[in-house]
Records
---
Amino acid sequence: MTKLVLYTLHYSPPCRAVELTVKALGLELEQKVVDLLAGAHLKPEFLKLNPQHTIPVLDDGGTIITESHAIMIYLVTKYAKNDTLYPKDPVKQARVNAALHFESGVLFARMRFIFERIIYFGKSDIPEDRIEYVQKAYRLLEDTLTDNFVAGPHMTIADFSCISTISSLKGVVPMEQSEYPKIHAWIERLKQLPYYEEANGGGGDDLGKFVLAKKEENAKA
Ligand SMILES: N[C@@H](CCC(=O)N[C@@H](CS)C(=O)NCC(=O)O)C(=O)O
């Protein structure tokens, strides 16, 4: 098997989603850190890999795959011993795809709208409507969790994708256990994974803390 290389940053939720997938599959990976704050993703050599200048990017023996959801599907399809993380059955797969798109189009998009305002635009306030949009997203996730995992009774890559964002977002927009008991139970379930802490635990908390610290710093500037 060729060596897998992941262009990544531990702060980044989609990178952590891929790291969870890699660990779940028991794959070895070389990590190349892309320092977004230093603009490493805008350098010509990185733009050659991904003209959309986002991380994560996977290099599998010269085959370049961009975008976390596409990377996770690729890794499971190519390397998994069974299809539980991304089922081949069209109905089950459609449920996973729906949850992946929910992460991309709702959770991550709404998180980004707050986090980038603070990190890149130097703001120290979070407008009420942006907070409400996140709370609505929490409600949608809570109502989606009719089973143990986001796409049914078994853990899939959609759980990795959603937890990577939720674990950072909840540090900035509080998520009360009494209001969202199913989300809290789901988070606890995923935390039991032996590789959770290394792949998502620290990074998830750290990004939330980084955004809050930056918010304070911006307020003083
Ligand atoms: N849908 C993409 C989102 C990737 C993304 O936006 N990554 C951020 C870091 S969390 C990034 O690279 N931002 C730099 C940029 O957009 O220029 C995925 O899941 O891979």
---
Amino acid sequence: MRPRALLLLLLLLLLLGALRSGGSPARNVLLLLADDGGFEIGAYNNSAIRTPNLDALARRGLVFQNAFTSVSSCSPSRASILTGLPQHQNGMYGLHQDVHHFNSFDGVRSLPLLLSQAGVRTGIIGKKHVGPGAVYPFDFAYTEENSSVLQVGRNITRIKALVRRFLQSQDERPFFLYVAFHDPHRCGHSQPQYGPFCERFGNGESGMGWIPDWKPQIYRPERVQVPAFVPDTPAARADLAAQYTTIGRMDQGIGLVLQELRRAGFLNSTLVIYTSDNGIPFPGGRTNLYRSGTAEPLLLSSPEHPRRWGQLSPAFASLLDLTPTILDWFSIPYPAYSIFGSRQVQLTGKSLLPALESEQPWATAFSSQSHHEVTMYYPMRAVQHGPFRLIHNLNYKMPFPIDQDLYVSPTFQDLLNRSRAGRPTHWHRSLRRYYYRERWELFDCSRDPGEGQNLAPDPRYGHTLQQLRAMLLKWQWDTGDPWVCAPDAVLEQRLSPQCQPLHNEL
Ligand SMILES: *[C@@H]1O[C@H](CO)[C@@H](O)[C@H](O)[C@H]1NC(C)=O
Ligand SMILES: *[C@@H]1O[C@H](CO)[C@@H](O)[C@H](O)[C@H]1NC(C)=O
Ligand SMILES: *[C@@H]1O[C@H](CO)[C@@H](O)[C@H](O)[C@H]1NC(C)=O
Ligand SMILES: *[C@@H]1O[C@H](CO)[C@@H](O)[C@H](O)[C@H]1NC(C)=O
Ligand SMILES: *[C@@H]1O[C@H](CO)[C@@H](O)[C@H](O)[C@H]1NC(C)=O
């Protein structure tokens, strides 16, 4: 190119840049994630807990009543949130830390990678729990990888200071800030000195340290609301009361983060999303693909859509929708690429932004789980369509595995003790039924919220069963699920992928 042409091109680019920054103001995203949080929120009709900051956010946003995680385990869920791909497609089959050592495939193009390539500044404060680092790059990162997770994930004074630091940077680019609280995760397995939910960490008592911005809320066990899938016992109630206290700390932290956003002048240009990674850490919750293990709170607060503020939406949302939603907000297209071979990766989630304009007919959500801890291999695939939820337990002859964290919890220890002694468990299912499941489980969640009555063998639901099985199988093929033929056949890829029968009597 001749020097004059080059100069003209430069001028043109500068002009375009000026128009861009001078035209529509930058749009930003703040993603707030709870760790094992559930529906213990005023906005979701829990009247026993006080969550004024989440309730205020709900009044500035749309409240989803049918939002689901695609997997009920921490690292796999975070990886699927940050890629838009289910665990079997992004490779994060289980937990990331220590001996579990799961990672996403090197070729995955994650949300932070796509955003930074498109000129969006990215930050993470709190629990990261995904890898490898090159797949999940952040410009600004204070996580368990280089800080104490208690400090960056539960100390709300520290979190406030880090958010302020991120927002104060003199960077012109729009931003994506991901604040991943470690509250209200259990603590009994890792830091029992702070109580079963770390509810005493930073409360000012001797040896607990102090979190200056936190006013601890104490709850009486008799007053908590026990979810239908949790045993109603004094042990579980005490556990829930401790959980409420840590949710209160997170709620106050959310208030501080939003105040920082307002102070820095970004409240009116930022899409704020609140959700959680997986079910609550109680029997039937985390690690299960029952509705009780996958249903999540989801608040979507857009400054540009005040018409839907404070409204409820029954439309189905999946956490697989967050990547498409955030890309849509920034008008960034999803790239054409493949992770393995020539098969192009396609997002099966959708942008949720249309729900901010008007009610949507969405009625389907898929889930896929393989592990939690490395020892906890229990592959399941699930779909909920309207009121019906179908779960395929691939290795259903194995006992359902229990994680280390749940095992030592007062709720589970009490359940074991009661079951062993033949005393009433006050639980809606038996331990035996919890461990040994049918291959296909079909529930009508509208009539049977406890998911106690398996309709799969009932001929009256034969048509529903076939319809949901077909939907689930199609999604497995669409997402390149290596388990698509299991457990009665083997996937053979040569020429065209096909299931070859095993004749193993399943
Ligand atoms: C809370 O309860 C009210 C009154 O029963 C109901 O209309 C509303 O749908 C409930 N909210 C949620 C989030 O389920
Ligand atoms: C953590 O890493 C970030 C870079 O991502 C760096 O700015 C920060 O200083 C590190 N924090 C600590 C405590 O090392
Ligand atoms: C929380 O963070 C603040 C600010 O960094 C610090 O002063 C305080 O000691 C921390 N609290 C605990 C319990 O570690
Ligand atoms: C916030 O943004 C909306 C729409 O983008 C606009 O109508 C409103 O005036 C703005 N409010 C403030 C305080 O800037
Ligand atoms: C369960 O039983 C064991 C041994 O009998 C006892 O030490 C423990 O305190 C009991 N736990 C609960 C939560 O009841």
